[in-house]
Structure formats: C-alpha cells, structure tokens
Write a structure and sequence with these properties.
It comes from Halobiforma nitratireducens JCM 10879. This is DUF7988 domain-containing protein. With 140 residues, the protein is of the alpha+beta class. It is 41% helix and 28% strand. It has one domain. The chain is globular. 31% of the residues are buried.
Length: 140
C-alpha cells in the first residue's frame, strides 16, 4: 500500500468513522426486509440503498470524505466534488468515491454488500449483506 493510500485510509478511519457507520446502518435497513439472506434484484438494491443514503444525509457527506482523503494524500482535487457521478456513485456493493489526482485515480469503496456468483450455469448473480462495511482504497 502506497503512502498516499495509507494516509487516506488512516484519515477516513480516524476522522470519518461516522460516515462508515452511517453506510453500515443504511445497508442494514436495506437488507432487513429481505425474506432470505440475499437478493438477485440488483436494480432494486441500488435504488433502495441510494434512497436510504440520501434520506439519512450520507450522500451529502461523502464529498467531504473524498476531499479530506485527497488532502491526506498530499494532492489536490481538480474540481469541487458533488454527491453524484463521477465523484460519488452508489453501486450494488456500496458507495464508491472517485477523484483524479496527479498520480492517478483515487478510488474509495465502502463495500456493504458482496456479489455471490453461483457455479451453476444460468443462475442469477446474488447480493448478500456483508458483516459490516469493508473500506477499500486504491490509486489506479
């Protein structure tokens, strides 16, 4: 792990624990009504998760997380991030924050769901709630 990535991770874990907890809480609210441990409806998962993140104010806070993470890398953002693409995207796994900085693209993932692929051909991809939120940061 490079120093910029390590610095961004440390900052998020120390200064933005509440954002991680809020993503976790919203993911729980999305998965609680499921009648099984997983869903195969990707579109509904993403729409419901985005709605929960919006209603709890999490989406509005994520650009500040991105700004602080970029500052921790020692680089600057080229533009002011907003809670929409290309800076903040809600995927079937969780929110993804992206910023282009001098060494490349900083990508921060808050994975609250995991993709489950069945070995049996023809079976749909499923999405299962993770135990917590996995924070992944990379410089691509």
């Amino acid at each position: 792990m490079s120093h910029p990535v390590r610095n961004a991770r440390r900052l998020i874990l120390e200064e933005h624990r509440c954002a991680i907890a809020a993503v976790d809480s919203c993911a729980n609210a999305v998965a609680d009504p499921w009648d099984t441990a997983r869903t195969t409806d990707r579109d509904a998962l993403v729409a419901t998760f985005r709605s929960a993140l919006e209603s709890e104010g999490v989406l509005e806070r994520l650009p500040a997380v991105l700004e602080d993470a970029v500052d921790a890398t020692g680089h600057e953002l080229r533009a002011q991030p907003v809670p929409d693409p290309p800076y903040v995207v809600v995927t079937s796994r969780g929110p993804v924050l992206r910023a282009t900085i001098d060494p490349g693209r900083l990508v921060i993932r808050f994975d609250a769901f995991e993709v489950v692929r069945d070995d049996e051909p023809g079976r749909p991809v499923a999405y299962r709630r993770r135990d917590g939120v996995e924070l992944t940061i990379s410089l691509e």
